[in-house]
Amino acid sequence: MVRMRSRPGRSILIVDDDVDIRETISLILEDEGYAVASAANGEEALRYLRSHPSPSLILLDLMMPGMDGVEFRAEQQRDAQLSGIPVIVVTASGNARERARAMQVDGMIQKPIALDALLETIERCTADVRSGQLS
């Protein structure tokens, strides 16, 4: 589950039930210099977040068994220690834009993932963290 190295502003938690997607995105992001951890659903992500240093960013799928992305985001927003972590929704859901807007996330990427768009969105969000604009 976890391959995390500490580099401030360059750590990402991937929350997706598809192991192939988690592994592929992890490899790409590690090649880009990010430290990466992953979780298969919302419950696993919350356990990770509550027992490790906060990542710079969370990539969050919406449709997962158990605690889905919407439920995870609501719980994250209720937790003062976790609410400041930026979230990018990565989903195949047809009504993703409306759902992402309602969830008050920092970005949204539609599956299938356009790699350039994903990396640009991640860089924008983690640049804000590194510059101290987000808590």
Descriptive account of the structure:
The longest helix is centred in the C-terminal third of the chain and has 16 residues, at 115-130. The protein has a six-stranded mixed β-sheet with strand order 1-3-2-4-5-6, with helices on both faces. The chain is globular. The protein has 135 residues and is of the alpha/beta class. α4 (96-103) links the parallel β5 and β6 (107-110). The protein is built from five helices and six strands, in the order ββαβαβαβαβα. The chain starts with a strand and ends in a 5-residue tail after the last helix. The protein has a single domain (2-130), classed as Rossmann fold (3-Layer(aba) Sandwich).
Any key phrases for this structure?
135 residues; Rossmann fold; 6 strands
Describe the secondary structure blueprint for this structure.
Blueprint: E1 2-3, E2 11-15, H1 19-31, E3 35-39, H2 42-51, E4 57-60, H3 69-78, E5 87-91, H4 96-103, E6 107-110, H5 115-130
Parallel strand pairs: 2-3, 2-4, 4-5, 5-6
Antiparallel strand pairs: 1-3
Summarize the structure.
The chain is of the alpha/beta class and 135 residues long. It contains five helices and six strands. The model is unreliable at 1-7 and 131-135 (pLDDT under 50).
